[in-house]
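Sequence in, structure out.
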Amino acid sequence: MTIPTHSSSIQIALYGVAHGHISHYVEEFRKFTAAHVIGVFDADSERSLSFCNRHKLRKFDNPEELLSQHIDIVIIGCETAYHLEAVSLACRYVENIALQKPLATTIIDGRKILQEIQKAGARLFMLWQMRVDPANQFIKQIIDDKQLGQLLHFRRRHCLSTHRWKDFQKSWHVNRQLNLGMWADDAAHPIDLMQWLFGSPKTVYADIDTLVNPEVPDDNGIAIFRYDSGLFVEIQCSFTSDFGETSTELVGTDGMLIQYYGDAPSCNQAEKSNYGLKWKIFGDGQWRKAEVDSPENHSFRIKALAPKILEFAQGAYDPPSSDEYLYSLILTLLCYESSSQKKQIVLRDYAN
């Protein structure tokens, strides 16, 4: 992929490397001669040193020194609860800010982050890999072209195998103060995908629980969103799932679409018995197979964000609006309220 550049290189700063996806971006940046990671700051000095040694990068001991290095973009990968602090500081130095999802742990912090971006005249790119996944882009094209007729039911499975991950219960990802829990951390992905594909729903009913390890909150859950058109959207998440196959189903009055291997447990299997995506229109004799290959493993989907980050840094990519980022957060967090109250939530009641 060719990255358009307006200078000899794209200067990249890493503010926080708590999130594991940052390593994938750094590895992918090495494929682009224009990309230059100038250094790393992390509040955890040992974590920063380990990351810098592993990737042969310069360690900075304070964020201001890093951010004042005439950089083109800063990638923020600190713990979610610290996003507001990191963005507020980065806005003083940098125009382009790439922020690891989710936006924040509270709606109040989410609003404050976007206010800081607007006040500084900065640009924000939330790192949602589902939006750059070729399979999801193909699905969006099918939807936009109205090939399936009136849309009736969309089901998205999004799973992980956290119960197999050594010491995961000790990680910041499942610390209520730093990241809430697994629903806020990872169900956020398919919820943002839903908003990208279909727009804003009108109601949600969710049921979220901790079933396997009490130290890993929200390891399983289901949310059902309804749209003004009547569309049902089901988000089904098990973060204690070893395997999988079908990850997306979309039913319309004129046909159906099925995607395979769209999450980590399904994609990382050594053997894949089906092609990645197929759809069938009423009257067709056979299923149509999309020319979209499933990646070898799920890390390829994460790495696909790296070139998009570079395009964003050079002004060649316009990210979604701030309203979309905030609404994805609102939708995700309202699932908790629905689950705790055991009732359907009308989303317009929370619009402001």
